[in-house]
## 1
Amino acid sequence: MAGKAPKFPKMGKQGSSAGRGRRAPRFGVVVARFNEPISKRLLDGALEAFRSQGVDPSQVEVHWVPGSLELSQAALHLARSGRFAAIVCLGVVIRGETPHFEHVAREAAAGIREVGLSTGVPTTFGVVTAFTEEQAWERAGGKVGNRGEEAALAALEMAAMVSRLTRKHG
């Protein structure tokens, strides 16, 4: 990740530092298989981010879908299940010779945003949109950072915020 990682409460098996005794939060990760080698690198970044913040691997559930357009539908099902504190969506869309790139990227972003807004479950966007495969690799753990890591850290931060607000105003 470019820059310094933000500080989050450690989330181990006994729950966050703010809620001892609470059940540990679970996180869903949905990954698009299209451009799978790059998507796998994004997933590796996300899983490492969760681990580095004290999330036990058993608290993270990974689901693969065909492509970036399917991310939001899968995320919606996970969010509606009520089992997850946040959902991370990961994928790769690389510009080709047709306008397909713009449609897929725009609709993936809109769908993922809609899941979070309609369910209240934080749903983060870790979809790399790049002009070339080389640019995509740079955003999946190269010199530009790892968008999967960033999406996982955003999910942790948003889940903690929602949890605080729910306890405070719930």
## 2
Amino acid sequence: MPILSSSYLVNKMKILAVLLFTLLWIMNQNVFAAGASIKPSKSAGEKRLEANVYFKEGQTLQEAGNFKAASKKYEKAVRADSKYAEAWSNLGYSYRKQGDLRKGVKAYKKAIKLDPNLAEAHEYLGEAYAEMGKFDLAEKELKILRALGSDEADELKEFIAKMKTK
């Protein structure tokens, strides 16, 4: 039997190493494809738990009248869980209280799209419209609140009347 030379074996080992490296690299590309997350995505429940932490912090800041800081917390809440209607509504409220009616209206509409029966969002949207002088739209929200049988209807009615006298 012929004996193989050491240079022949070294060359074969190099080729084998390159093939092994290439195979491992290809396998790695399939597992971590471009744009794929290394971390597993969170479940809806995990997202809501994370969002609740920010939501509660936002409520505390809102109650203290710190609407700018509250809006930052609500923004984190809706980033954690984009389907959190109450967080969108409170985000709209904090924007509105900072004087940004346009952003407030946009957040209220998002909340209502997620939960059409969220009376608080309808009330606040109606108030924002009244502040903007869009009384026809404010009255539309008032009708929705009445159809929902919400106590917020009386509050919105009073707010609209107050804004009309200004």
## 3
Amino acid sequence: MEIGVKVGDIMTRDFVSVKPDTSIVDCAKIMIKKRIGSLVLQEAGILKGLLTERDIIWAMTKKPVEELRNVKALELARKKITIIKPSADLYEALQKMRKSKYRWLPVVVKGRVIGFLTLKDILRIEPGLFDIAHSHGVFQIKEEKDKLKRKENRRLGGNYREDYCEECGNFDLLEKIDDRLICEGCKERM
């Protein structure tokens, strides 16, 4: 299946990149300033890796704060990255995103990064692809059932709310049963 729109037509050409030896603290500052979730690591135009918010958060939980300045982007970055050519169709890009489980793809020609494509870029240009992306598992709405259930209960004025379960102590969506707030798991065990 082809959509008829090429990656090169919608990719971001002015993507944000840093050198592989940039500290992760500086990378985090750049991400915050530019309001982005990932950085392309390149040297002389050659792709060396990709650093995401998740990578930085992982480092923050594993390293002492005083050591974070010494951690270089390349140490945490993903080095095995799925890439795409600018001549590829958007449908192929969606397939690659699904397979790699990432919502972004560096656009590369002869080893040189020339752009960056995100799922957001695709949906901004062609919102109709939302259904294709969703049906192909490129992304899914997290906790969709719970959110819909909460919305419906608020609409109906139900006895549900988020809090700590009085039975097991877990923070969850709770239902008021016999004047106690109980989570779904504890409710089933009753």
## 4
Amino acid sequence: MAQGRSLGRETEKANAPRSRESPGAICADSKMSQYFELHPITPQVRLIRQAADIVRAGGVIAYPTDSCYALGWHLGDKAALERVRRIRRADRHHHFTLVCADLAEVGRFARLETWQFRLLKACLPGPYTFLLRASRETPRRLQHEKRRTIGVRVPDHPVPRMLLRELAEPLMSSTLLLPDEPEPLTSGRDIQARLEHDIDAVLDGGDCGVVPTTVVDLSVEPPVVARQGRGPLGPILGHRP
């Protein structure tokens, strides 16, 4: 962790063996987060691999998406989930999002009927979050406590797509909107300044705006637009189950 701020700007001389820390070694309360300055179109593989190592070891990262910045953590890590709850001040009814590489991964964690699959296929990858009934494979702590639903999305941004390929599994995620703030944080430097002791790494992929995803509830029929965001409503409103 001590290498922090300089990693994203180092040249290839920085290819010395990187340290791999055990899950218990990560403690954002006492260490500053690492800062990775990534190319927004062709992210550096070396830095993406280090970010994946941090996630696997129980860390929480901030990363860019095709809507705005988000917090990400390992889907199986309860401690990381609770850290994000504290950062967001989110209660048990807050919908977190399972970020998937493709629709096949979505189908593992959500129950999809034919009409739902067709709508997802028309919209993804893209800036949408869909609320769906969770499958038996989805841990209960990741589901909405009462509705037993989960938010899913497939982003269209090089950084999370490369990160998902490196992880070879979905990433839990939440919009990087801090309590009492009107808009999500959108600058990597601002995120680092505000959360340097609360998260483990900032993946700076440039400004990606403050408009969050469009959220569509597909656990009901017909679908309900729960939040209008960056994703256009045409594919949703034109859908007929």
